[in-house]
């Protein structure tokens, strides 16, 4: 089933008069192979308000990253409903999913996922390459702005291998925010960093949340970092626990 | 996006270097074969200048050798043989020449063109009937005739249009002298153009289109180069059985002479093979090379895509559609190919600049470059399709190793 652009412009989701950025209803994810059926998520319900900063915690294999993938439209639920910014995206085509990912969602990964053969500037520009009718000049300007925000404007011509881990994660954050997304999904963003650098990255994320009103969902193992967020959702064996 | 791909390909130049080298050599080989093929095809399209159907060549040679003093007798034997062929009702007309069309061997000399450059021309002897036998088309002046009997101050010659163009441009060549001046300033006998024929390409359809000149042989002058071949036009439908009958009759006339009768169609087949076999052989080698390069390229690109799974997953996460990923991988392949091809074009452009291809029109060179480019880019696209498709199947969640 394909989705038209009309379907993308559904009205915003609300709950008790509060604008919801993300809503998951009875989401299940089951991985099936010929022999095994693995239940990754069971009956997950989640509502994230616009501008909220929440964290998801749980032991390894509890389904945190699967949940983040589904919210980030990188994976589809086996059943249940996913509503992003008022739009039910379950039946979106690849093209529309890509557009929503590009315009509304920014990803930050534990291992940064920078392209080593591209300079810092070029890495940050990547999401903008997939925007229609954006000129090279505009891309460069926005990338510079994003790098300014993460304090790396002096490293634009460096390559990732010339940067420290913390700097690389800053570049990844600049890449995530360059397209001015409304949602940031961070998968253990401090997991590969020492505590000092981890704190710096957390400060950066908090700043983005407070100053730009960006909705942030962060998966973390670190209770210290999770404590800094507004809410903590816990998963265990694919189920939400209190 | 092109700028982005250029940066990506350039920054990975060490990884892509071998592919570029492979593309470069492929381009050179493909260009060589295509150039040969285009050059031959271009020659094939040009008028041959004579008819070969129902024409037989009878090669006659004195097997005992010919002392100088016997040349008069030899010429008499030629005349007798020519007369003998005309006895048969199957023979419409017959003439003498030195070398038959499609025959092995060549007789050539050099001339200076109007612009001062040197060029080669082919030469042959012709008796007055050769025009009728081969259906030569006179476009200016006249063919040899009894009118030329007894001329003493010059030799009448008939040239083809190509030679006329090379030596005289737009001027009328009739009456002009086409003798090559002697290097030691000794007087040279005038070769006066009495006629221009459309063409005469004795080495066949695929051979170089060159200037040509016929000398008249009146079958009387024993000091001239002697003819060696009788060319006959037989009536349509004449079978090979006549060949035996004719051979017997000629052998009776000159029992010690070696006589060989061959239809021009047979000589033509042999000659065309001489041109086509090398092209086919090189073409086959080039085709194998291209297949190997194509498979190698596919393998390298496949590996490349596999190694870049994370990057592709990242791009998908950042908003690239499957189609964009497909275009990106294919675009990178074309860019890498372009680097190899660019160096290849720079190399082959040197050939005409250094006058290596002076015998061919610049258009042929341009066509060969164009077709080679199409083939190499076609190969690159074919090799890139499957890896590009594989790239679109990357599932971002898996590629990014979330779990």
Question: Would you identify the regions of chain B where 5 or more consecutive residues have pLDDT less than 50?
Answer: none
By DSSP (H or I, 4+ residues per run), the number of helices of chain B equals: 11
Span from first to last CA of chain A?
37 Å
Average pLDDT confidence of chain B is: 89
The largest chain-to-chain contact, stated as pair and per-chain residue counts, equals: A-B, 34 and 28 residues
Write down how many β-strands of chain A occur, each being a DSSP E stretch of 2 or more residues.
11
Fraction of residues in helix of chain A:
25-40%
CATH class category label of chain A: Alpha Beta
Domain count of chain B: the total is 2
CATH homolog superfamily of chain A: P-loop containing nucleotide triphosphate hydrolases
- How many helices of chain A? The count is 8
Poorly predicted runs of 5 or more residues of chain A: 1-11
Proportion of beta-strand residues of chain A: 25-35%
Number of domains of chain A: 1
Largest pleated sheet of chain A:
6 strands, mixed
Strand order of the largest sheet of chain B: 3-4-8-6-7-5
Sheet with most strands: strand arrangement of chain A: 7-8-9-4-10-11
Number of strands of chain B: 10
Structural summary, described in words:
The complex is a heterodimer of chains A (242) and B (403). Chain A is of the alpha/beta class and 242 residues long. Chain A has a single domain (52-73, 92-241), classed as Rossmann fold (3-Layer(aba) Sandwich). Chain A has 8 helices and 11 strands. Chain A has a 6-stranded mixed sheet, with helices on both faces. In chain A, strand 8 (183-187), helix 7 (195-212) and strand 9 (215-219) form a beta-alpha-beta unit. In chain A, helix 4 packs across helix 5 (136-149), helix 4 (120-129) runs parallel beside helix 6 and helix 6 (165-177) runs parallel beside helix 7 (195-212). The radius of gyration of chain A is 18 Å and the shape is globular. The model of chain A is unreliable at 1-11 (pLDDT under 50). Chain B has 2 domains: 2-46 and 271-399, no CATH class; 65-255, no CATH class. Helices cover 51% and strands 17% of the residues of chain B. With 403 residues, chain B is an alpha+beta fold.
